[in-house]
Amino acid sequence: xxxxxxxxxxxxxxxxxxxxxxxxxxxxxxxxxxxxxxxxxxxxxxxxxxxxxxxxxxxxxxxxxxxxxxxxxxxxxxxxxxxxxxxxxxxxxxxxxxxxxxxxxxxxxxxxxxxxxxxxxxxxxxxxxxxxxxxxxxxxxxxxxxxxxxxxxxxxxxxxxxxxxxxxxxxxxxxxxxxxxxxxxxxxxxxxxxxxxxxxxxxxxxxxxxxxxxxxxxxxxxxxxxxxxxxxxxxxxxxxxxxxxxxxxxxxxxxxxxxxxxxxxxxxxxxxxxxxxxxxxxxxxxxxxxxxxxxxxxxxxxxxxxxxxxxxxxxxxxxxxxxxxxxxxxxxxxxxxxxxxxxxxxxxxxxxxxxxxxxxxxxxxxxxxxxxxxxxxxxxxxxxxxxxxxxxxxxxxxxxxxxxxxxxxxxxxxxxxxxxxxxxxxxxxxxxxxxxxxxxxxxxxxxxxxxxxxxxxxxxxxxxxxxxxx
Length: 470
Fold this sequence. Notes:
The protein is mostly beta strands. 2% of the residues lie in helices and 49% in strands.
């Protein structure tokens, strides 16, 4: 458990992030506090920290600027907090800010990939890739110069938790091969680049996106047992509610796409083209199945904005996607204050209440089919937080949703909705409900292992955290 304390001895003119004193709290399996140990001090040269949990050790990795170079320092702790090692394990021959580096881990935690993107004037960035084993010994180190290479995403948090349990467009397989899905530098399309991990060889496949659509999100997942991967790209048509989800299934051995499909749909029913509500979206990979789009609705927009919701550009693409024949408003039955499932990806309404959550599922296999769902719940959320107020955890044979249910201004109920892979709600025995006197902050939750989630909470102006195990 990482915590911060305000330093009073730092001058006021110092950087804000340098005023925090770092330490680690160590707990046993029952979350009883055992020890507190100091963390590495943050200095002006500190760019980023990576915190990595293993089966035997806890590792704190510090990325630091060193003149015109960048170094990675390892501090390894024993389970009881004793510092075992403090040494430099990698060095890059360039100086870049912290957001130019990406670290991801394999699913079995035996390998870790560190990428550094070196800026090159009037050219594509130079990619530096280092793969470490679980003892942070360098297994391979390569430099890639290719005109199609771009940085796919930014790990902008100062404290990062590398994990394979995410949707990052960079994924490291257990055998050391890794994939990166990034924008093409020559078109509106995307590229899926395949690196074998042991040489400078690069192969890539192009994912063609429809014209006039703008990419919103991308997700990537790897199946280590079958040697395959799923790539999903969410894009939107102009500023409307019309979207496209492009799903591909990639084979490592054959270096081919054996499934390539595009799904176009609208998140609003009828001819309405713009949202009445503020919305938050999350595009998530469902391992070995496909992808899900979660769309949560917030407070309604102002009246001046709503007056333009029915404006429609008169072009062919928009007319085909939004007309009275293909998108006739249909009033689907809704389970009030509950969950509803539908056998299509059509929107159920053109107007939603705050806290409503729409689900859209897109398969990655030809034998599977689309479905959608709707959760009608009142939510009180942090409007400035980027995450949803619903926690979604895809397990091997279940889809788990967790949220706070607010009823009649009483204390919130912590609720769990469990679905099977086809979106059908499981029996009541699968549902976990509890009434709590603290508010679980699902928007700040973190999935730390495949079957564990850490959730902060606040109670009587005091902060804590809960560990949920599946």
